[in-house]
Amino acid sequence: MNFPKETKAAILVEQKAPLEIRNIQLPQQLEYGHVLVKVHYSGICGSQLGEIDGVKGHDPFLPHLLGHEGSGEVMATGAGVNTVSPGDKVVMHWRKGAGIESQVPKYMWEDKPVNAGFVTTFNEHAVVSENRVTKIPESFPMDIAPLFGCAVTTGLGVINNNAKLKIGESIVVFGAGGVGLNVIQGASMVSGYPIIAVDIFDSRLALAKKFGATHLINSQNKDPEKAIRKLTGKKGADVVVDNTGNTDVINLAYQLTSPDGKTILVGVPRKGDHISIYSLPLHFGKQIIGSHGGETDPAKDIPNYIKLYENNKLKLNDLITDTFELKDINSAIDGIRNGTISGRCLIKMDNNGT
Length: 354
Fold this sequence. Notes:
Number of helices: 8
CATH architecture of the largest domain: Alpha-Beta Complex
CATH superfamily of the largest domain: Medium-chain alcohol dehydrogenases, catalytic domain
């Protein structure tokens, strides 16, 4: 397999601006722990929209590459790599898995450096750290595989590791995007009840019902607090999950959590935005938990979730509602923002000839 000299990528050049699709030069030598992956598909997560919008403040690494969930084939490996080999099909993920954490790769664009993290997926070829790829079966669908990079692993991890939701416990999920739908699916798998999905788009709520939500609330049309308390009683829900990062929603999520329940924060507020809560209940059993990708261990969890999917225990096909080419990635991002894309959106890479 030829080692490519350049590849096409979507580059974040300026915050709050469209990504630029350009050819960049790949490193011509793989360093210790590096893995060169021919990317097949990439997902788009809310985290990338946050990076574009600058929710964490000034970005000192511009221009840089994006993307943290994808699927691909290993083309070559650097020294020390022993968990994957050339020809292996892999999931690309942002949580640390097995293997070496390498130094970040060095790409070039018009004789200037383009920064990248330990994994990027908005590029047709990517040099990633060994501990950001996990081998999958040769026959596994490459369009389903990216979901294990973030959406599925985070959503199910929230249920397994953060919420530890038990049979019959109630859960409210604010935000029914890719991660939220899998929080809902996970809650259904462990027989939570009621499973209340809250969103501002009816199309996403329709998907939430398909993935196991027992009650749907469009917060544009109904007062979510009144509607939720009608279902859970004055005590509130055992678990409330926020995927939005909106501080008003986080405050409401905390208020709607029972005195001995858990508020789980998946979404990240914009830098400078602060929540305001009455903290006394935290001394008597109430909890606020900041989730970090559902505390997923990719090396252990991805094979387990693949087994569930292959045995029809995990619904993922309906999660993917839209697929775009890399050249149209900005249209895909716009569709996620305005709600015309209801589920997970994939970018299909046009690199079959390389």
